[in-house]
Amino acid sequence: MKRNVFVTAAVSVTLLVAGPVATSAAAASADTARTTPAAAARVDVTAEQAVAAALKDYPGVVESLDRDGNVWHVDVITKDGKGHAELEVDAATSKVTRENVDTDEDPSEHKDLLAAKVTAEQAAKAAVAAHPGTVWTVEWDSDDDGQAASWHVEVRGSDGKTWDGSVDATTGKVTAQSDSDSDSDSTSDSDADSDQNN
Question: What pTM was computed for the model?
């Protein structure tokens, strides 16, 4: 009889001592389950961040930047005009992958780009100042038909429309081209971060 009393007492003491620990561990586990999705929430890489990541990997001057689903495609020309890299920047992690690198470019083909007073980053910022939204595309446009070199910039507004504009490569003046509905295959990407500050 005494043995049953001691065993019962020992079990009761164990439950009293371990109970709060087990409850605390269960609560911690529940808290982790609640906070893990928030911690793992995806934060889109902005155009500015994609450019910074690309230039860190391959220094030079950005020739074009284009968002395609979960990837930024960034073309960079070295400052001497002899190198050209096609890079992909993951829009979730900003990890850079070199798709193609060419080291025997003709520098004369890139002289206007390299001499431009307005960079791709500055053109993007100017376009967003003129038409608030998220930069989706920035492309160098140097025609041989006598027109001034410029940047073509696409900005996606919160209304779901894509605004097309030109940014003069010398003055930074922004000129609107058109408003159009955004592509249906990229509608899911319209929630990208619109912070484009330098």
Answer: 0.68
